[in-house]
Design goal:
single chain, about 300 residues, 8-stranded parallel barrel, alpha/beta, 14 helices, globular
C-alpha cells in the first residue's frame, strides 16, 4: 500500500480508500461487507468512507461492526452529514457515533454541497458547521471537510464563504477522474487551490460506479492510475466484492507516476466521450442528488430567512 499525508493534518492515509456506499448493495450481504472492510484493513487500507444517509444507516452499522475487535485502532474513519442546521447536524452526528460504535470519528464532512445556498446555510450562526466545531472541541470528531459532485464553482464558493467566516477545511472531496478533466473540471478549477492551501484532497468517482467504463474508452486500472497520479491524499473507490478489492490492490501494486505522454494518451482516448458530461451524470442530472430527493435531511432554514417569508 502507498500512504500519503492528508493535507496539513499530518495523518498518514492509504492512497486508496474503501467507499462505504457499496457496502449496502443488494448483492453485498452482511458477512461479505464485514469481510471486505476487515480484509482491506488487514492488507493495508486504513481510510474508510461512509455517510449518514447511506441505506438508512445500514452501511454505517455494518462498518461499525467491522471496526470491533481491534480494527478501529487501525482505521481512519470518515463519514458525512447532510444536515445544514445546527440542530439537524447534532442529531445526525449523534446517530453516526452510535451506528459506528466509536467514541470519536476521525473526519466528518458536510455532504453534497451541490447548491450555491448550501455554504450560507452551513455557516449561519445556527448552521451545521457550528455543530461540527463544537463536536471537535468536545473530542467527538477530529477533522472537518466537505464533499460535492455537481460543479467546481460551488466548491470554490464553499471555500470562499468558509474563509469569510474565518474557517479552514481540513479536507475536500470531489470527482477526480479521466473524464472530469474535459468537462466542468474539478481537477482544473479546484485541485490547484487545495494543493496550494494544503487541504487534503479526497478523490471520488474514479470510475463513477462503472459508468465511465461503459464508454469503452478506458479500463479500471487506467481509471485508478489516472486518479492516483493526481495530488490526491486518497482515491475512494467502491468495493462490492473480494475480486474488486483485489483489483484495488493490484492497481496500487502496478501504479507508477504517469509520464506526460501516458497522461495525454489517456486524455486523448476519453476526450470525445467526455465532451458533454454524458458519462458523468452526477454533474449533469439530479440522479445522484440524494438530498434533493430527501430535503428533510437538510433541516430547517435559518430563522432570519423564515422570518422574511409571508405568514
Amino acid at each position: 500500500m502507498i500512504y500519503r499525508t492528508l493535507g496539513s493534518t499530518g495523518q498518514k492515509v492509504s492512497a486508496v480508500g474503501v467507499g462505504g456506499w457499496h457496502l449496502g448493495l443488494k448483492e453485498v450481504d452482511h458477512q461479505l461487507a464485514l469481510r471486505i472492510v476487515r480484509s482491506a484493513i488487514d492488507r493495508g487500507i486504513n481510510f474508510l468512507d461512509n455517510s449518514w444517509d447511506y441505506n438508512e444507516g445500514v452501511r454505517e452499522l455494518r462498518m461499525g461492526e467491522a471496526l470491533q475487535d481491534g480494527y478501529r485502532q487501525r482505521a481512519f474513519v470518515m463519514t458525512k452529514i447532510d444536515g445544514r442546521s445546527r440542530k439537524e447536524a447534532v442529531r445526525q452526528l449523534d446517530e453516526l457515533l452510535r451506528r459506528l460504535r466509536v467514541d470519536h470519528i476521525d473526519l466528518v464532512q458536510h455532504h453534497e454541497i451541490i447548491r450555491f445556498e448550501d455554504p450560507h446555510r452551513i455557516f449561519d450562526d445556527q448552521g451545521a458547521n457550528a455543530a461540527l466545531v463544537e463536536a471537535r472541541t468536545a473530542g467527538k470528531i477530529r477533522y472537518i471537510g466537505f464533499t460535492g459532485h455537481k460543479d467546481p464553482r460551488i466548491h470554490l464558493y464553499m471555500l470562499e464563504i468558509a474563509k469569510e467566516n474565518g474557517f479552514r477545511f481540513d479536507t475536500v472531496q470531489m470527482p477526480l477522474n479521466v473524464m472530469d478533466a474535459h468537462y466542468r473540471s474539478f481537477e482544473k478549477l479546484v485541485l490547484p487551490k487545495l494543493v496550494k492551501e494544503k487541504i487534503g484532497v479526497l478523490g471520488m468517482k474514479s470510475m463513477a460506479n462503472g459508468i465511465l467504463l461503459k464508454s469503452k474508452t478506458v479500463t479500471p486500472f487506467e481509471c485508478l492510475h489516472y486518479a492516483l497520479n493526481l495530488p490526491t491524499s486518497v482515491v475512494i473507490t467502491g468495493i462490492d466484492s473480494m475480486e474488486i478489492l483485489d483489483q484495488a490492490f493490484a492497481a496500487i501494486e502496478s501504479f507508477h507516476p504517469l509520464t506526460n505522454g501516458e497522461r495525454e494518451a489517456l486524455l486523448a482516448k476519453t476526450r470525445e466521450a467526455a465532451a458533454n458530461g454524458r458519462f458523468e451524470p452526477f454533474k449533469t442530472s439530479s440522479i445522484f442528488d440524494s438530498t434533493a430527493e430527501n430535503p428533510e435531511w437538510l433541516g430547517e432554514e435559518p430563522r432570519e430567512i423564515r422570518e422574511l417569508m409571508p405568514a
